[in-house]
Write a structure and sequence with these properties.
Structural class: alpha+beta
Strand content: 15-25%
Strand order of the largest sheet: 9-8-3-5-4-10
Distance between the termini: 25 Å
Helix content: 25-40%
Oligomer: single chain
Number of strands: 10
Number of domains: 1
């Protein structure tokens, strides 16, 4: 279970607020510093894959998969975004085991996309701009541990080249106040997470963790990437 507190800033819940998330009115919660006002659009990658071609798969990790999945479900050109685990073995690809932080897995999102509408490099641009903080090592917001690391799991050598070049580009230009620590980890299998983790942001919009940590990411996407923003998310549940 994700905790409804993070590192900085306090907010007191009003009467009747967020009771669906199990937090009573009058409770003080720490809220995330990742507000819509603080996020900014990173430059696009200088190296990218060619436009067009058949559907492609990207696997990205950046903290709790609820918010990362929610962001990419709103990106035009994304066919599906599924929460899961990458970096470890089959037998430890379960939430309770991954949460220990010793399995090698990171909470990840498998993104199937149409390269004719959105490129792999553009997905990486969204990833570092609004989906998570790429300068945080083994933590995002309230969550700590290697299972919340910033990591790219390329599904081809071309993706690995684009990801490594983009990280180097961002660091050379000092786009962020601290260095980008995103790891590039090729050759890792993706394992889909349990059904109750899928579409969590959309299905639980009043859950405190979602309100304070993840809904601002959707607002950031709409504000910073209006040309990519899709109001109606493409949901995993809609496929079944």
């Amino acid at each position: 279970m994700k905790l409804a507190h993070v590192r900085t800033s306090l907010v007191r819940l009003g009467a009747g607020a967020l009771l669906a998330g199990g937090v009573a009115a009058g409770t003080w919660l720490f809220v995330s510093p990742s507000t819509a006002e603080e996020a900014r659009r990173a430059p696009p990658p200088a190296l990218d894959e060619p436009a067009g071609g058949s559907r492609e798969v990207a696997v990205l990790a950046g903290g709790c998969f609820w918010g990362v999945q929610g962001v990419f479900q709103h990106v035009d050109g994304v066919v599906s975004a599924e929460s899961g685990y990458a970096g470890g073995s089959t037998d430890t690809a379960h939430y309770d085991m991954t949460s220990r932080g010793d399995t090698g897995h990171a909470e990840s999102v498998r993104i199937t996309f149409d390269p004719a509408k959105v490129s792999y490099g553009k997905l990486l641009q969204v990833y570092v701009s609004v989906a998570h903080d790429p300068t945080e090592l083994n933590r995002q917001g309230p969550d700590e541990g290697s299972q919340y690391r910033s990591a790219v799991f390329p599904t081809s050598s071309a993706q690995a080249d684009v990801a490594r070049a983009y990280i180097a580009q961002l660091n050379a230009a000092h786009v962020f106040a601290s260095p980008v620590v995103t790891s590039v980890e090729p050759g890792k299998e993706f394992y889909r997470a349990e059904p109750y983790h899928q579409d969590f942001l959309t299905l639980n919009p009043t859950y405190p963790y979602i309100v304070f940590n993840d809904l601002p990411k959707i607002a950031n996407l709409k504000r910073l990437f209006p040309e990519l923003y899709r109001p109606k998310p493409v949901l995993v549940g809609a496929k079944s």
